[in-house]
Amino acid sequence: MPNSTTPGVEAEFAAHPVADSPHAPDRATLLRAYRLMRTSDELARLYEVNKAVTAKYVHATARGHEAIQLATAFHLRPTDYVTPYYRDDAMLLGLGLAPYELMLQLMAKRDDPFSGGRTYYSHPSLRREGFPVIPHQSSATGMQAIPATGMAHGLHYLEGQGLLQTADQQPVVVCSIGDGAMTEGEVSEALQMAVLHQLPIIYLVQDNDWGISATSREMRAMDAYEFAAGFKGLERLRVDGADFGASYAGMADAFDYVRRTRRPVLVHAKCPLLGHHTSGVRREWYRGDNLAQHTTNDPLPRFHRQLLDQGVASEEELQQIGDEAISLVKSDYERALAAPDPEPSTFADHEFASPFVTEEAGERAPAGALKTTLVDAALHAVDDILREFPEALFYGQDVGGELGGVFREAALLAKKYGDARVFNTPIQEAYIVGSTAGMSAVGAKAIVEIQFADYIWPSLNQLVEELSKSCYLTNGKFPVQSLIRVPIGAYGGGGPYHSGSIESTLLTIRGIKVVYPSNAADMKGLMRAAFLDPNPVVMLEHKGLYWSKVPGTEDAKTIEPAAGYVIPLGKAAIAQQPDPEKLAQGETCVVITYGMGVHWAKAASRQVPGQVEIIDLRTLNPLDFEAVEAAVRRHGKVLVLTEEPVLNSFAESLAGRIQRTCFQQLDAPVFTLGAANLPAIALNVELERQMLPNAEKVATAVRELLEY
């Protein structure tokens, strides 16, 4: 191949006549492919004829792409992993799924094997004996490349550690993608990591020259094959995606190469687009004569002629196969129409997988232990996890090598556990976060780090679309175990790109958990619980608490818990008790807060001794609202304190909820206090001080509340 960096690879991928190929399909394979191609064609035809029913929900079909999809499916093994994209229904048929099963998803029926009626047609997710694993993915317009590469990355890691039970099968990941989606920046991140780490993955690019109504000339400067030349070490192969024999031989070459070398390949398959982009798009409005041009390359009549010319089957045999496909699709359609819809009461099932940790366990303050800082507690918690769980690995920007993180929060871990387990990544926040979904699907357990909270934004696409929805949209089959560490908050003039607070944005993302410790002991216990949780967890770690150097944060240093200490997520703590007599006399209030707010509240409360209870939420989602309500009822006066700007924040939302549920117990409006409503933290420390809450501002609010 033109960009090959491996001796002998060009010869392996050299074009050859299909008949002379060592991978030429036998007669049984050819007839199976024809049967499934006819089945796929009939699915598309039936959907069009019955579009009043079938187009109730949006769908796309494989028309024009059947040959390459079936060729790919026939080379996949049960030990492999595959991420089909939204028009890959022929690939699903090739894997052994029945038309009936696909129709159950088309009509959003209860027994849809992928999502139970929750997501679109040909958006599969499958764990079934004898089938490749198909994890959740979104609508697959480029975003799937990162989780798929994460799967290959996880396999690479587990195989290197001797932890892969199917290593002798040389499992491969296939990422199916359209050529239009190859222009996504996240695809480049995936290709970069596949080459950098030499991962066992095939990127199958199906190129039909269209992206809805946009032509290839409008969308790209080059096709995917040409684009891949820039990634040295990514082998490339062109195939005629409309010819089954050529596709089968080409995919055989690709699978053989990846299984043997454990290196990545990109296969560029040119296909005609014979159907609509999706059922919601009127192709006649923009295709013009183009549809007729594409029809001349229809894989089905082309394959039909080849089978006759090669003497594989007679016209009568092929007609019988076609009649059987029509009959099967028709009968499956009638069955699917009659299948039950989902039970409405199940709509909320599988937001999260059940947590592993439900009770506090281990020694929080073992005899003879010394006080430690929050940053060291985090370091030691990760160290304990890596030592105990060989499937765990830790990566992000600058966490590997000598530095061990810009805050030394991973100091010496790479030296201790090796570069395969603790390593640096490029500046690719999307890959850092999205790859954890793939890691989780293959059984690796990733701890990753975003260097500063202000840098998390490029990862939100992956966090929202790939991680947060996976458990819910797969009916609980694919929860994503992912621990994402994020240093957060303002600290000593960090300025606009190193000081932000992001929890309110994260808390609008359903399906993730958000944790925010305020002291070393909680950090260690929550870190372990977050790792053990089978769901995506974002651990927010305030930089100003890492070393307790900020005046008033001395209490962030605590006795270090023993290894194995764990705190369940979703349990608040009472960080400070009020004086019982003042509580009985109605002279108290409660401050509900987290992170740095706990320490501001403690310092402020010294001005009103015994009159302030402090609730440390510790976990923002799931929220321990029972603890909040109980505290509100004890005091009747509440301040919700945050470091974020208050307007439209989590704090303001929590205050509104308290006001709604505890109105009759309140003796004053629920107060809120946070940063000024400005778009960024200023660099100058005096400007920063003016913007942020502090102990004095909290004390002023508390006095006003107590006097209300």
Number of helices, where a helix is a run of at least 4 consecutive DSSP H or I residues: 27
Gap from first CA to last CA: 78 Å
Instruction: Give the class from helix and strand content and strand pairing.
Output: alpha/beta
The third-level CATH topology of the largest domain is: Rossmann fold
Largest sheet: 7 strands, mixed
What is the CATH architecture annotation of the largest domain? 3-Layer(aba) Sandwich
What is the domain tally?
3
CATH class wording of the largest domain: Alpha Beta
Helix content percent band: 25-40%
> Which shape, going by the Cα principal axes?
elongated
Report strand %: 5-15%
Description:
E1 component of the 2-oxoglutarate dehydrogenase (OGDH) complex which catalyzes the decarboxylation of 2-oxoglutarate, the first step in the conversion of 2-oxoglutarate to succinyl-CoA and CO(2). Its cofactor is thiamine diphosphate. Pfam families: E1_dh, Transket_pyr, Transketolase_C. Keywords: Oxidoreductase, Thiamine pyrophosphate. The chain is an alpha/beta fold. It is 39% helix and 14% strand. It contains 27 helices and 21 strands. The chain has a seven-stranded mixed beta sheet with strand order 10-9-11-12-14-13-19. The longest helix is centred in the middle third of the chain and has 24 residues, at 315-338. It is elongated. Mean pLDDT is 92; it is low at 1-12 and 14-19.
